[in-house]
Amino acid sequence: MKYNYDPKDILDYFEKIVSVPSPVSYYVQMNPVMEQLAAELGYTVTFDHKKTAYITVDGQDNSRTVLVGAHLDTLGLVVRCIDANGMIRVRALGGVNYASLEGETVTVHTRDGRSYTGLMACQSHSVHVFDDARTLERGETTMMVILDQPVTSKADVNALGIRHGDIISVDPRCQITDNGYLKSRFIDDKAAAACCFVALKTLKEQSLKPKYRTLFAFPYSEEIGLGGTYVPPEVVEYIAMDIGLIGPGYDGDERKVSICAKDVATPYDYELTTRLIQLAEENGIDHAVDIFYRYGTDGNHALKGGNNLRAGVFGMAVYCSHGMERTHIDGLKATTDLLLAYLMEC
Q1: Where are the beta strands (DSSP E) in the chain?
Q2: Cα angle vertex 72, ends 42, 326, to 5°?
């Protein structure tokens, strides 16, 4: 069965969500936006002690509870130290590819609520000055933040309120082409969160109830392997919505939804994964089934956390994961279609 919604809503929600900084552990700006977006649809957000956001939807059968998770944390950085000349040295939050960050605008968020933009640069920042500007490996020891402030010393930086451990977010640079391509950082995993909100909107506007009581969960620590380690005890099934991968040996592409049968460590539940594949086939949803390398999800984390549940994974495939990513509206639609099919039919 096809469920009607406006695909433009996916992109609209994505643009709203991706514009709010939320590197690993940094929920202070994003959670109020989640409350606002939910309230606009008539839903209420609750939080656990880890500040994971939940939206609960009654089902046709409330004796069984399933969970759909889309992590809101993104890759980011923290202030590691400040050089004598005022340059900021960083440490990664999650699997950062430093080579993809060179030249990006970043924002330092102080603990007293101030923010300062800067340029992410290599210490050998110019081919006109440094012999190794092209060859120096981009990494934690060679990259730095040049603040967009007139600072020349560590004292100058400290005077702005910047301290060790302050969170640094990266500009997502979201772009949407006329023919449906989405280019942005943090499609992983804010595009999945956008798909969740379109599903929530569809349920509300069409007075639909999912088959079972459903928790939508939005954690902030997937990128460091902790996102799904705590799951409310009533949950019996965990659907982790996360990106699919594109490359040699994969069937996934930007115009399909990718169903993950196994990640770097975890084969996902056999019967649940089979049912997701069947739902895609029965509903005419373009899909691929793949196993992923160097990849994990909150479903993986939920299992490793010892939770008594079964897990499955699907989501839109992207080019250039953990960099400037790209996908297509067709893949986002296929992901939303499979989510709605799961909610209503699984």
Answers
A1: 45-47, 53-57, 61-69, 76-82, 88-93, 105-109, 115-122, 143-147, 167-170, 175-176, 181-184, 212-218, 235-241, 244-245, 257-262, 287-291, 310-318, 325-328
A2: 110
β-pairing verdict for 76-82 and 167-170: antiparallel
Strands 235-241 and 61-69: parallel
The pLDDT tens digits of the residues spanning 285-334 come to 999 999 999 999 999 999 999 999 999 999 999 999 999 999 999 999 99
For tokens 């050089």, name the residue. 83
**pLDDT recorded at residue 2:** 81
What pLDDT shows up at residue 1? 79
Name the residues annotated as catalytic: 222
In degrees and rounded to multiples of 5, residue 300 shows phi and psi of: -60, -45
Q: 3-state DSSP call for residue 331?
A: helix
pLDDT reading at 141 higher than 90: yes
Residue ranges of domains in the chain: 8-74+186-345, 76-170
Give yes or no for a contact between 200 and 135, defined as CB atoms under 8 angstroms apart: no
**Averaged over 34-63, what is the pLDDT?**
98
CA distance 105 to 91: 16
What is 8-74+186-345's CATH topology? Aminopeptidase (3.40.630)
Tell me which CATH code domain 76-170 carries. 2.40.30.40
